[in-house]
Amino acid sequence: MKLIRGLADIIYPPRCAICKQFLWKGPLINEDNSLSLCQTCIADFRHISSPLCPICGVPFPSEIKEDHPCEDCLRKRPFFDTAVAPYSYEGPILEAIHRLKYGAKSFLAGSLGPLLSRFTEERIKESGHLLTMPVPLHPKRVRERGFNQSLLLARHVAKGLKSDLDFLSLKRVRYTLPQTRLAKKERQRNVRGAFQLKNRDAVKGKTILLVDDVVTTGNTMNECARVLKKGGSGKVFCVSLARAVR
Ligand SMILES: [Zn+2]
Ligand SMILES: [Zn+2]
């Protein structure tokens, strides 16, 4: 297999999925990774940094470096315990996620997954055992796209954390409009009742790590967390590769 791959790389040298630069010029992300993004593009992913809300993860444009809860979280505490993301949803990371989701470039998860996995290992300091769950897609959407990008990412995260992965117990039962196309108020209504827990025993008393590709307002994660906690789960932590910045 290695030889065939080596030959294929000579005939069709791999290029960065974002900027199209030949990848053999740059260093690898890590050795066992199949190459799909160059170091320059990855270095351009904009990190989310403090000050931010320690609950929902929204960053503040303030100079004061102290984290503090945002207005939305103070008014109504979300069902999840924390939501964190390494990158702001703009520039090359937005491009990469778009290509992964809408360009059917599922191999991009091989480069993006380890980035999310490393970030999660650093940020989620939970001593107990976690159960990793991707935010589910409606079966119709899975058929359209061919895969659930959150599941592809969750596989890497679960592997990194040596946690169990469960992508069957939580289901999306309602076909909803993409959150990005809706106004703030409509987003909450859009996902209400969209998820169902098919197996309560799987989550009972467990600390859950929910994985998604992008968080826009946090309504989707919040609705999943509501359903999981109603079903008897313990804490719910959320991680996503990117977060839309207001
Ligand atoms: Zn590139
Ligand atoms: Zn908040």
From TrEMBL:
It comes from the Bacteria. InterPro entries: ComF/GntX_DNA_util-trans, DZR_2, PRTase-like, PRTase_dom. Residues 8-74 form the Double zinc ribbon domain. Residues 150-242 form the Phosphoribosyltransferase domain. Belongs to the ComF/GntX family. This is ComF family protein. It comes from Candidatus Desulfacyla euxinica.
